[in-house]
From TrEMBL:
This is PucR family transcriptional regulator. It holds the Pfam family HTH_30. PANTHER family: CARBOHYDRATE DIACID REGULATOR (PTHR33744), CONSERVED PROTEIN (PTHR33744:SF17). Residues 294-417 form the CdaR GGDEF-like domain. Residues 471-528 form the PucR C-terminal helix-turn-helix domain.
Amino acid sequence: MVATLGQLLMQLGDSMLELHVAPQGLDVEVREVVICDPDDATDVREHDLALVVGARGRQAAPAVLAAGQRGAAAVAVKASATGADEPLHAAARDAEVALLGVPSEVRWSQLDVLAKDVLADVGDDAGLDAGEARTDLFGLAQTIATVTGGHISIEDSANRVLAYSSTGDEVDELRRLSILGRQGPEQYLALLRKWGVYERVRTGERVVRVEARPELGIVERLVVGVHAGRRWLGTIWVARGDKPLANRAERALLGAARVVAAQLARRRPTPDVGVQFRDSLLAGLLSGRMDPASVAGQLGASGEAPAVVLGFSVAETQQVDRSQLELLRAELINLVSVHAAAFRRSALVTALEGRTYVLLPELTGRGGANAVLRFAKEVATAAGKDLRMPVQAGVGSIGPGIAAAPESRREADRVLDTIAADRATLAASLDEVRAEVLLAETAALLREQPSVRDPRVTALAEHDRRYGGQLVPTVLRYWDAFGDVRAAAESLGVHPNTVRYRVRRAAEVSGLDLADPKQRLFAELQLRLT
């Protein structure tokens, strides 16, 4: 019985085992599963997965060190109640042994049996079955059709049709026969070979245009080769319908080819960690659960080159119920994946807590932050148009290597949380909206801590609610104008004397001294809540 650590984690999933630290990567061999007493690791041998039963968090550190010294491939430990397990992570790094977290609800006996089953069955095809992979490809085909404005078919290197977008019309004879026969008709394939189409898509990453041939019943097409390194995996065809293809069709098609390449690679037996597992690693990295150095190699990212995280979110509205929202979010992942792959080959995409995130590692070249922000705005605009729902993007700060990715993701979330109420803002970086972010977060703190609110400010807001008054907005405009009565009156569309009266009345109702800088500062913060 033998499997790599990566294969074991991929099969069990993060609901059973979470990767925290992997000093020697995920290609280390696991040959046996043993239960380890926290005070005695003598049963642990080289290449074992040691399950440390009876100790949580830092209490398991001695067992981790001992297991690592005896050559264990990995050690599995349940988290402490507080979750503050950094000493445990440090012990794993010192012992050069992988550290795996076990969710509290998982029974050790259950994990023991399942892990041994994986080791026993690892020789079988552990990847996705063809049906599941086909479902993913059909979803991608529909996404690519939306982005390009054409009719899509995805074929493998033997010209077999793997997936296609749904269509309300027949398009042309070539598409009809290909879909019905699940393979391109030989007479048409011979023509495409004669025209040099296949030679061009096999030998490079480029979009080839096939002109319409009305006499042969063939409409205009675009085609791109799908490649994994130097290996040609297949093609994506875009047939024009009643309307011209989208302006961004060629660029989107290049990105789509890179995404489809990952899907086609999943269908082939390979010793590499699968795409689904890579997504899990990326989600673990962005959530802060996984050690960046341990997953950098698996994600194909450098530990030093600049990296940034972008977050994308579909607006939640009363017109969209929960099931519709989940479908929109799933479609957003495909859309963002296509655009991200076109922008940077190294782009990584995952979904986490209802949002879609893009990690751009190895961020080199001109433009830097400005180029990333432009890309975020382009994707938000295009995705919003394709989904017919507002899509917004938040851009975190560029940091040194993927170790900065969790913080960059938190910053992207802060931006999204702040601009959510402003549908006119499609995308923003933290630097652009830092003042708004800080103000919103300060307001949130005040909401959570009623004891730090000034009752006089509360009384002023309550007075406006009870009598339908305009004291609060007037005072805020007055402060925005730095006490310039005429400017405040002009912005409100009232007479200056009205502003003077309302400001005096606000002081009387609340009892605040609006000339006192300290009272004015705190009152403004609290009034922004209302």
